[in-house]
Amino acid sequence: MGVCNHTKLYVCALHPSRGIFTGVGGLAFRASQSLQAEPPKKKKKTDPKQEQLRQHRYLKRLKKLQYKMGKAELKPVEEMRVDRALLDESRKRDLPEIPPEEQERRALLLKRWSKFKFAQHVAETRLIEGAIKAQEKALNELRTESEELYQQAIKTDNSLFPLEGVGPTHTPAIDGFDKKVIDGEYVDVTRQYR
Amino acid sequence: MSRRALSTLYSGGRRVLHSSMSWRKIGQFQSARCYADNFDEEVEELRVQQIADQEIPPPADDTVHEVLNIKAFGYDCTLVEHFAQYTHNLSKNMSLSVFDSYALPAKATLVHAIQGTGLKEKDRIKDYTLTTYQRVIQIQDLPSKRASLLLDLLQLNLPEGVSFTITLHTQEHYKERFIRKEIPDSLL
Hints:
By secondary structure, chain A is mainly alpha-helical. Chain A is 41% helix and 7% strand. In chain A, helix 2 runs antiparallel to helix 3 (147-154).
């Protein structure tokens, strides 16, 4: 006669084929906790030196892999890239010949434009030079007044940065735009390079 | 909870990677003491490609600023590009040294309107992607006497729809430009 461990019922061993239960109580089947992994293994004693060696070797292997990876690449800037299809030779067109009057007109236009831009550049340079001159004069006067104040004036102002500047808009602010605004969200969908 | 957090939980708070195992097998981690204290952190660090630090020159003395990043950005690529060219030329004109000038990858923003389900398909507002283009000019050793002049000129010459920000250059700014490659699990 044996005793089943879980249920503690008596199972008759003399008639194994019959499997007669002679004990009292119902068949109380109990399911154990579902072990989705293997049952817990015995804890192995890990030698500290072995452990350290293993870790050291692992790190070394990682560093070797790093070296093999080579230099880091910059993220590509999409607007600088030209579509391969556009570089196709068959896309090239033969342009018509330009009559001499048109050529002359274009040359004169280019001259006027470059003259205009040069005048702009000169005006800006004069502005910069004037401002620098006035500043230097003021600083020299300050220096003659007091050396200490001059030294302090020359120093950098760390509270200046970070700084933001926003460009003008096409129209002034639209009246009542705040109330008309639609409920929504801005989601950053920039391509992440991994 | 993430897989990593779960596996940490099962192994009693300490995760140890043995060379014969991979990260994916949860429940096989044995809690063992880490003999190198920062082993876990080092492994985490080394999994991603290491980028060498950039050599950012310090300011020459206390009358000049550190390396500054002038970032021009906006929705119109041509205007942003031309404004970047303008700042470059302006700095040369004012005899300031330009450290570097580069483009950052464009940012894409999805504009999504939250609407009720009552509207018909043709009346709905469709989602739209806006791209913001960015250009950076780096100026080294800007004397503090010239700083206000430069900033005024930049602000006055800003085209429509373009903005700029000026910040101090850091290693993070430099490393952001690179692709963050990870070692694939198969090689570990």
